[in-house]
């Protein structure tokens, strides 16, 4: 199951990009390799990150900002609807 990462605090206010990335780092340290991120225009989600054993990381990001580290998709493919 993917780690659920929120770009909002408990009062539904946007948190800083640094705070969001710290949530991702904590989950990564706990062995997570899949992440579902609800963003609010946060940037640099997903990079530079890696696992010690080289397992690939998977991100699903809603409402990304600049420089989300997304893998290119093959020609003719489309993202699945949310």
Describe, in plain words, how this protein is organized in 3D:
- This protein has 82 residues and is of the alpha/beta class.
- The chain has a domain at 7-11 and 21-71.
- The chain has one helix and three strands, in the order βαββ.
- It has one helix at residues 17-29, and strands at residues 3-6, 34-38, 58-62.
- It has a three-stranded parallel sheet with strand order 1-2-3, with helices on one face.
- The two termini are 17 Å apart.
- The model is unreliable at 72-78 (pLDDT under 50).
Helix and strand arrangement:
Layout: E1 3-6, H1 17-29, E2 34-38, E3 58-62
Parallel strand pairs: 1-2, 2-3
Strand order of the largest sheet: 1-2-3
Hey, roughly how much beta strand do the residues contain? 15-25%
**Computed structural class:** alpha/beta
Order of helices and strands: EHEE
Oligomer: single chain
> What is the rounded Rg?
13 Å
- What does the overall shape look like? globular
What's the number of extended β-strand segments? Answer: 3
How many H/I helices?
1
Poorly predicted tracts of residues: 72-78
Distance between the termini: 17 Å
Q: Helical percent range?
A: 10-25%
Mean pLDDT: 81
Q: Main β-sheet: number of strands, strand sense, barrel status?
A: 3 strands, parallel
